[in-house]
Write a sequence for this structure.
């Protein structure tokens, strides 16, 4: 993965840059020693490492804005960082760039039950929000598996999703307001505690923008009352087709479950070896369908799901009768990543999305690719919304295996696009999928996205090298190449 | 004034290319529905997109529909009805407020306006349902963003930016959006006779219950007689309404629970599916404020808790009719148009708690004189101008529809 060439000129000015940052962020807010900076050299995509020029940990929005304004003036690159759990290398440092860490923004500022929202600083972890409101029976719905660690600011930057997003929406659907610090040193408020601000939807644009447009310094999220009941059904199928058809039939019947997850045979067995969840080892596919809501509704829908699954040839079917049993159904799914980690020295987690109906086809193609690349793959899916997480097993110590795994992963994602899907469902483009963007977008599509970036960051200083395969200067992107149109239009009817 | 009637995206590209090279502005029309909303335009020419109509893709099991921007609301709703599905955000039909027949307008207009109805609380706005689009930018370039799946973080989410941009960034040539199954049953719990502030309390209690309320609204006593639902029009009192949707047995039980819970606020009642659907469509389209036609109509979004206080502040200086949607977070309000349709007082009323107000209906002179959309702060305006310029540097598309020259 080629990163933008570091500027030797900037690296040579390191001590002046450090001094300037120390003037903005006093005390221990600037980290310069290699030992301490080591903690920031990678994120969840740990195959890639890079020491930053310097790390700064501001404590107030004003300090963040001042750091950005300074960097913009001095032409220094900035990489925002939350908890560093990105799986796409979004928070990977640059040798000539400042890491702007939001770890000190860890306070819950307000919980407002009357308006059903919470105002939090960006470094607060996803799960901490639920913890802050659960005593009143509320929770924050988007639940990425990394929720104990990942920050809400990082969730906004990546538009994080989770098991419950099928019914309750992604990060973008659960935000009311943001505070944003921009490169020109402004602190802007977008939205608030009300819905649908007028004007362009800047909040929607910023969500999922991977730290390339501005730094989020405060987040207002919607909180929901926790459903009274949740029950899950664990269903084994003799084929992934039957499981795929069940998913389609459940949704076709008008049922939107709280979660609908699928695992293939290798994933089932890895999980079973690891936690003994009682999964049927011979099943080719396993579905976990969770229904939540009022008890009477959950009981009613569980029955319908059971009928649908049986009609599609389910070979095993268990309905949870207690919270403990429901947790046990999830135990295997939740530990799928570490379970796979145990059967292989390394694994790479992919994240494509396909239209649900293409599930059997993508599985067939993956089996073929697995043979071709000589690497095993285990699959877990957010089946309800067609979001795949193939785990490619490899051994980085064997020469060539990392490259083969990457090639395998790229082939999977290209297939997702061919089948009408996309390169990434929730983990982001980062550096990982950057060079595949051309599979999904034309030059014109990408140029328009980059022009939007120019509106926030004319000099390309915020998190460069991520998301876009080619860096273009804003002036070049702004140039118009319009062929002179001819009037009268020979072809357009006019009246 | 010339009207270019495009038949396909190539025609759109050609028309915009011409306009760019002539530096001559275009008004985009997609069935005309949105013309009455926003600041009046003075463009030389019009690009009529009504030829770009038709459903390209509808896969009910995939919950996805793709169509040309000029596909009519009717066409879309008919297709969805056939599969028992819906646009869950309940697009507001502004036709009646403008004195036109209901059911007109196009899907492109629906997304350009981003106006959501009562289910906004639970299901999100139009922007939450637009999955992808194709368009011709004001740079005369065809481009696309997003796709046909919900889980997608590949590149910037430009669909969000397009939704609610009133045709100021690009001419849509295709939209793909998420659809949802219709609820099996829809009932409404009613509480009679509350004052505005009490109603906010009752709606908040319902919203904070675990009963999955999908909408909560309040019609004051003076407007209740305008309802077509007799339990509301004949009540002679204000009506607070809580909508519950889902499978049959669940809905009846939850409505019973809500009524029990709200009994301390006042006498309760319930509406079943037919009446519920009628009532929430009245709320969605603000039918209570259609007459008298000369009155200006505002749509004001505030934190739900502050709805009654904001209303009281406005009502202390102006004679208004109003009702609440979104549990008090949305105030629909009618006032004499005067010179500024009370814009200054209305926008001052929520300065402390935050919010925004859109002048939905007013004579063209008033819409030209006061900001129709909530004015942006200095930094917000500058950023919005740069975003506009990134799509439309020559200011060709619907210039001035929203703010300043945007
Ligand atoms: C075991 C594991 C499981 C995971 N499961 C899921 C899952 O189920 N669903 C899912 O969606 N993701 C998942 N992830 C990915 C990751 O947790 C999410 O992308 C998360 O949102 C990243 O948050 P973070 O705080 O760690 O951000 P970081 O990794 O620190 O940063 C991510 C990106 O956000 C930017 N950024 C961070 N904070 C800000 C800010 N305040 N302002 C502007 N930009 C900022 C960074 O520049 C970077 O581009 C998983 C990761 C791991 C390791």
């Amino acid at each position: 993965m080629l990163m933008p060439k570091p500027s030797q000129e900037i690296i040579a000015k390191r001590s002046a840059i450090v001094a300037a940052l120390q003037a903005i962020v006093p005390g221990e807010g600037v980290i310069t020693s290699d030992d301490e900076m080591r903690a920031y050299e990678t994120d969840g995509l740990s195959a890639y490492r890079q020491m930053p020029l310097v790390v700064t940990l501001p404590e107030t929005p004003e300090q963040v804005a001042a750091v950005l304004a300074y960097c913009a003036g001095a032409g220094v690159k900035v990489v925002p960082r939350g908890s560093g759990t990105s799986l796409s290398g979004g928070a990977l440092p640059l040798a000539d760039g400042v890491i702007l860490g939001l770890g000190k923004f860890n306070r819950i500022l307000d919980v407002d039950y009357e308006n059903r929202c919470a105002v939090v600083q960006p470094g607060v972890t996803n799960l901490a929000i639920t913890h802050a409101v659960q005593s009143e029976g509320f929770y924050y719905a988007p639940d990425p598996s990394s929720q104990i660690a990942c920050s809400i600011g990082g969730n906004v930057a990546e538009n994080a999703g989770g098991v419950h997003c099928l019914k309750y929406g992604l990060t973008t659907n659960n935000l009311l307001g943001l505070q944003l610090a921009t490169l020109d040193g402004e602190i802007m408020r977008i939205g608030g505690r009300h819905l649908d601000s007028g004007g362009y939807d800047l909040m929607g644009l910023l969500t999922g923008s991977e730290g390339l447009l501005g730094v989020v310094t405060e987040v207002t999220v919607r909180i929901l009352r926790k459903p009274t009941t949740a029950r899950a059904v664990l269903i084994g199928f003799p084929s992934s087709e039957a499981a795929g058809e069940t998913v389609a039939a459940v949704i076709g019947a008008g049922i939107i479950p709280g979660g609908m997850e699928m695992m293939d045979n290798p994933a089932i067995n890895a999980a079973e070896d690891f936690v003994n969840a009682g999964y049927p080892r011979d099943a080719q596919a396993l579905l976990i369908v969770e229904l939540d809501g009022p008890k009477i509704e959950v009981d009613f829908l569980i029955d319908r799901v059971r009928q649908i699954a049986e009609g599609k040839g389910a070979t095993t079917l268990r309905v949870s009768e207690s919270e403990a049993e429901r947790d046990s159904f999830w135990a295997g799914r939740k530990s799928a990543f570490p379970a796979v980690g145990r059967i292989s020295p390394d694994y790479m987690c992919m994240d494509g999305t396909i239209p649900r109906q293409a599930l059997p086809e993508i599985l067939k193609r993956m089996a073929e690719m697995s043979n071709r690349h000589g690497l095993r793959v285990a699959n877990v899916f957010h089946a309800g919304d067609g979001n795949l997480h193939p785990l490619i097993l490899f051994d980085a110590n064997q020469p060539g295996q990392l490259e083969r795994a990457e090639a395998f992963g790229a082939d999977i994602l290209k297939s997702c696009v061919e089948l009408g899907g996309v390169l990434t469902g929730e983990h982001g483009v980062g550096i990982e999928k950057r060079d595949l963007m051309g599979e999904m977008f034309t030059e014109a599509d990408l140029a328009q996205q980059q022009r939007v970036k120019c509106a926030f960051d004319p000099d390309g200083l915020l998190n460069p090298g991520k998301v876009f395969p080619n860096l273009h200067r804003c002036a070049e992107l702004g140039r118009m190449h319009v062929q002179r149109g001819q009037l009268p239009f020979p072809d357009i009817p006019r009246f | 004034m010339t009207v270019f009637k495009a038949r396909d995206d190539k025609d759109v590209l050609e028309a915009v290319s011409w306009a760019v090279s002539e530096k001559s502005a275009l008004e985009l029309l997609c069935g005309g529905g949105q013309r009455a909303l926003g600041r009046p335009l003075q463009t030389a020419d019009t690009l009529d997109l009504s030829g770009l109509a038709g459903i390209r893709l509808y896969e009910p099991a995939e919950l996805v529909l793709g169509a040309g921007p000029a596909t009519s609301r009717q066409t879309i709703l008919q297709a969805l009805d056939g599969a028992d599905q819906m646009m869950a955000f309940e697009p507001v039909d502004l036709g009646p407020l403008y004195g036109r027949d209901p059911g007109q307008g196009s899907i492109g207009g629906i997304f350009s306006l981003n106006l959501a109805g009562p289910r906004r609380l639970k299901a999100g706005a139009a922007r939450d349902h637009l999955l992808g689009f194709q368009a011709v930018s004001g740079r005369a370039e065809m481009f696309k963003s997003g796709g046909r799946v919900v889980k997608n973080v590949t590149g910037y989410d430009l669909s969000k930016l397009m939704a609610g941009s009133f045709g100021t960034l690009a001419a849509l040539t295709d939209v793909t959006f998420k659809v949802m199954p219709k609820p099996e049953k829809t009932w409404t719990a009613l509480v009679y006779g509350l004052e505005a502030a009490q109603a906010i309390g009752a709606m908040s209690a319902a919203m904070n219950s675990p009963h999955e309320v999908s909408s909560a609204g309040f019609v004051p006593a003076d407007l209740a007689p305008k309802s077509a639902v007799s339990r509301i029009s004949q009540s002679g009192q204000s009506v607070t309404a809580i909508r519950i949707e889902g499978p049959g047995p669940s809905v009846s039980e939850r409505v019973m629970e809500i009524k029990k819970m709200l009994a301390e606020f006042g006498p309760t009642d319930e509406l079943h599916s037919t009446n519920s659907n009628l009532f929430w469509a009245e709320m969605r389209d603000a039918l209570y404020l259609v007459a008298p036609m000369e009155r200006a109509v505002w749509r004001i979004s505030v934190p739900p808790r502050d709805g009654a206080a904001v209303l009281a502040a406005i009502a202390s200086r102006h004679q208004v009719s109003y009702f609440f949607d979104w549990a008090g977070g949305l105030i629909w309000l009618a006032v004499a148009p005067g010179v500024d349709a009370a814009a200054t007082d209305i926008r001052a009323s929520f300065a402390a708690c935050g919010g925004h107000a859109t002048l939905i209906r007013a004579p063209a002179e008033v819409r030209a004189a006061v900001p129709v959309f909530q004015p942006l702060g200095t930094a917000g305006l500058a950023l919005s101008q740069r975003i506009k310029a990134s799509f439309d540097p020559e200011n060709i598309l619907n210039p001035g529809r929203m703010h300043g020259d945007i």
Notes: Chain B has a mean pLDDT of 95.
